[in-house]
Amino acid sequence: MPDMRLIVAGAGGRMGRALTRAIADSKGAVLAGALEAPGSELLGKDAGVLAGLPENGIKLSADLWAMSKDADGILDFTVPAATIANVAIAAERGLVHVIGTTGLSGSDNAVIKSVTNRAVVVQSGNMSLGVNLLAAVVKRVAKALDESFDIEIVESHHRMKVDAPSGTALMLGQAAASGRGIPLDHEHSERGRDGITGARKPGAIGFASLRGGTVAGDHSVTFLGPFERLTLSHQAEDRILFAHGALKAALWAHGKKPGHYSMADVLGLTDI
User: Fold this and answer.
1) Which is the most buried residue in 20, 98, 129, 232, by most CB within 10 A?
2) Which long-range contacts (CB under 8 A, 24 or more apart) does 228-236 make?
3) CA dist 113 to 44, 98, 101, Å?
């Protein structure tokens, strides 16, 4: 099978540059385009040079329609508005759309799912193998322990991250809620505690977010019961691991029938 031709969205950003490096280091995929926001000062720059690689001749452009003519997929770790703008074009072109963007609203996710009857979308709050295994274990533990065990999720990220809780924290919260057989809604979650909050609600899932430095991503889920605690955690040491996970997802999805997939599908974890 020919190499999969991939577009990197947000190619000038930290994650975009990591995706460019991951494609260059991997077999089975080639860089077919580098997308950047209209008006960006990086438009016209060489994607390879920006990623710390030799010049590759792929210039950053804001025209997804033009660059997608000869592409097979798009790796999209951008911002909600950009991802939603990319959805229709990716579906029209028949691209595999790998979405790692976080901070998406309910309506954003509805737009994404609206194209999956005719397009292949792989979407996840985190593309790493370790985090997805962690989510599977969290679901099992939450199912095994009753409400006498409170669930608290703590996440840490670099100072530049703009959304909280992180997409990974929400993914872990959803895994815990699924294990408990409850929805992860306002009634069953606690965030941003401050002042006289009253006692903790039985059965709620708590979230806390830390921001600072250059942390790639640390997440822990603690089950706090009578006289004992169990903590499950994951530390990301470099964002390149998310890039390699996204690339794995794209290659797995190439040729799949239209649908909305997750990293659990890619990694064969749907039965856990």
Assistant:
1) 98
2) 230/141, 230/149, 232/134, 232/137, 232/138, 232/141, 233/134, 234/128, 234/130, 234/131, 234/134, 236/128, 236/131
3) 32, 13, 14
Instruction: Tell me the catalytic residues.
Output: 157, 161
CB atoms within 10 A of CB 2: 7
Only one residue has tokens 């039985």, namely: 202
Inter-residue contact 253 to 266 (CB < 8 Å) = yes
Is 1's pLDDT higher than 80?
Answer: no
Question: pLDDT > 90: what percent of the chain?
Answer: 88
Q: Is 165 exposed, middle or buried (0-12, 13-18, 19+ CB in 10 A)?
A: buried
- Asked whether residue 270 carries a pLDDT value surpassing 80, the answer given is no
pTM of the predicted model as reported, rounded to 2 decimal places: 0.80
